[in-house]
Amino acid sequence: GKVVKVRTMIMPAKRGRRGRKMFIRHRAWKKAVVTLEAGEQLELFNV
Known about the structure:
By secondary structure, this protein is mostly beta strands. It has one domain. Helix content is 0%, strand content 57%.
């Protein structure tokens, strides 16, 4: 597919909980939003 633009953002880290007292820390992660031309698809989803 023809990519028009790509926007990236860093999602903040979060704390999760497993059980009553056990805390889990989820790391920060990077997210990308890809905009394609109208009518285009990524080959990944044509399976």
